[in-house]
Amino acid sequence: MGDPLTALGAAASVAQFVVIAVRVSTRIKDYCSTASNVPEAFRRLSIQLPLLVEVCSEYGKLPKADDSKAVDDTLEECTRQVDILEKMLTKAVPVKADSGPARALKAVISIGLEKKVEESIARLETLKTLLLLKIGLITYAVLRPPASSSASDTCFCVPSGRLSRFFGRTSILDRIDQILRPGSRDPKVCVLQGMGGQGKTSLALEYCKREIAAGHFKSILWVDAMSLAAVHRSFSHFAERLTDHRRVFPDVSACIDQVRTTLQSWAAPWLIVFDNYDRPDRLPGVLDYLPHCGNGAVLVTSRHSGTASLGETISIAGMDSVESIQLFLERSGMKYTVDNIESAELVVRTLGYLPLAIDQSAAYIRSKRISPTAFLKHYKDRKSKVMSFVPALSTYKGLKITGSVEEEQPLSVFTTWEMSFHQIWHTDDIIEPNAIGHFLTTMAFFSNTNLDLGLFRSFSDSDGVKHSWMPAFVDVDTSGWDEYACQDAVTALEQLSLIQYTDQHAHFANQSDDNSLHGRISFHPLVRDWIQLRVTPEARRAHCTEALQILHHYIEHKLPSATVDVRRELLSHLDSALSSQSQYFPDWALYRYDSLRHCLEGFMRFYLAQGRYKEAEEVCQKLLRADDSAAGAVQTLTLSTRLLLTDVYLQQGRYTAAEDELTHLRASDDSNLSSNMVLSSRLINNLGMSYFRQGRYDEAYSLLQELLKQQEALSPADDCSVLDTKELLAQVCRDRGEHEQAILLYESALEGFESLKERLRKLKCMVNLAHTYRSQAQCHQASDLYENARVQLEEQLGPDHPLTITTKMYHGINDIAMERYGTAEASLRDVVDRSVQVLGPKHPDSLKSMMNLAILLHRRDNAVEAEPLYRTTLDSREATLGFGNPYTMRTAECLVSLLWTQNRCDEAEALAARVMKAAKPRHSSAGSLDNNLPDFVESASSLDVEVFAFPGAEALFSQAVARSDATLDIAHRDRIDLYRALSRVYEKQGRLLDAQRMIRLADEGMRRAKATRLSIG
Question: Which has the least CB within 10 A, 359, 830, 884, 918?
């Protein structure tokens, strides 16, 4: 096709872009509608392109303006991007006419191109934002209505010069206009309600300016409603204007009467704005100032939610992303470039899309002459100073009231909220303002969304530490939690626009008081930051400690009955509280070691149980540093923390790191360890787990067998530590091929977990028992256990918990064995996506899911997708586990088998030879060929090539067959596949009798498997 960048004018540029974009969009939509497992980047592209076409089409309809050249340049860049995309997609996206091999080839190419497509989409999204901003500026310049001349019966008393330019928010302005159109006996009233800094005054002022230009309202009067004195000043000024300063009024009442009478006598529509009506308690009856006629309207701006009763209310939240970026760039004086827009988007997102904060930050950037990137560092390091910055020519002002003296002063984001905070001491529903102020500050150390008041009630009802906010919520008659007092306090705080409060029944499961009035608290993120920063550093440490204690109490006492959603919310609150602790209280161990250490250990265990391994390690390392400094390196607490760290390593798949730490502890001859049966048992159990995960089954078996004997001699049979050892030993027995012993151990452990009501341990044990049935080709029994466990785990932990994910993976593997390939593929693809996202691409469980998806694709003759998955898994396992590990060897066997079936025998042999040469001597285990397998690779040159060709492949598959004979039932599909793989090698070597022997074994396995399915069916 021709060069897409030829200068063709605006209309031609739009047309050219639209043609290419529609062509690409159509191709992508066809592909998404017909293909399964479409890359996410392509799905996003199918959504983004039509939106971009719509934006460009709108630009084509606009008149030519001075800024059109800049838009045309952006449009040309859009055209270039879609042209690049079309060329990539022609190579990667199959069409109906493609043959099978062509479609397969494109599927492989699409995997490699996904990252490039993502980059193009990100670029197009930025360009779309740039187009919207520039088109908005052109629209403003072209379509802005001219100012109309005033008539003799008009009176416009509106502040001038407050805003040099207003941006966006047209939907709110349109809504105001709909509400305020006269048409009834009394004036229409619209209330703009929201927290300070959301731009309520700016919206009201922009509406007035537009109405003056449009000529609808013939009179507009702007009342400063911050105080009674300010209202009186406004009406005195109006009276003077309406009488052309020809009358002298004896008092303010006369001025008010004059304004009412004049407006009521006019037939023309009028508008009165009450701005900053934030203290209804000090200024009741505000509507009494209005004339009683139907041709007027009232617009109120207020932070106080109680003003909603005055009329129809519009809740004012933050600006949208495009409007926020536009405001930021204009106020900071930055050009509309792609780089600046991307930087601006980070800034406005950090500021929560709050107009005043954006305006203030842009002025800060302009004043300090720094970049947006540098601003973000300023904001992180000196947040209080940045948010307290007031530009020299600030137009956002408020009244500072000292006694009876009122003084107008510029306001920053923080000072406007400080005004709301001080109203706590002047609110009737707040009986103990000091306690409520303390309560509000402590809440700010949790996450800024979905903070359930049930956490505070639970902590208040405990016998633990008492904090100064608690008396405000204690019923004097019962000495228990006063839910009504709590509700009064939080609704009062909401009326001051400091919080958002949702009155709803808590969704904590199995609460004893089902009729309690729990609610949920949310903050604007900047309000949360301001509340933290407004107190002294010492107070921050105290409030942070309170938040951690409240969370720990709930996790320790209420977690077993908590739903999945509640657990997620607790994780969010814990992340925020620990982030504050790291920022404001890093030296906690010097001052609060005794009160916080127990909390942090509980948090570490909670993170670990929820599959948040990275956070668990961070907390554990924090604990270890504190223990070392406070208790000494040989104390029991330090030893316990080090064992907790090995728990984390094992869950992360860092088996060597766990083994090193455990071996070091075991060799230390520490008297605290040798005298503590609990710690020493945990050490041996974890060491056995590390051996087992590394495929060192005999070492693990000896260690755990001896541990179990000691535990059974000293502990009750239903002790959890004894049951955990039994379950781990059962896993080792299973992989050694000792299935009957494994089943006995599993059943004993299950019975114990059931009696102790250890539900999670029981479910894990069920999954491991199912593995044993699957190894024996008893897939139907395994399927029932997998499904039962998966459903319960998803209910208790959620679909993204690592344990739920791996259980679903094992169920998918079992479906492969039962030849339910469609179900298995859907499950395993979902598992790969979730495990990579949750655990990372190199975690052992992520690699296991990729490996089993590859096995399935291989069996379904989809070698194109299977091979890259095999190679990815092999590279990672070789790097982390080495070839001495059975999981690494199994991956190598599968990849060599795939290459062999594609007649890439030389390539397969080279890989097999490398694997066998690199493999470390195997630790003796059941089925191992270490002692009797000849060194085929090293001696290949001395053998007869006609008979012993491909020695590497023969050695690899011979060893695999011996292993599977010892550990798997003959009907197991993995064992059958290995017989066939070795038979193919024998055929190539000309050893037909050996090949036929392997084929007979494979056929026998298939017959047994079929007979098992028929007997159950």
Answer: 918
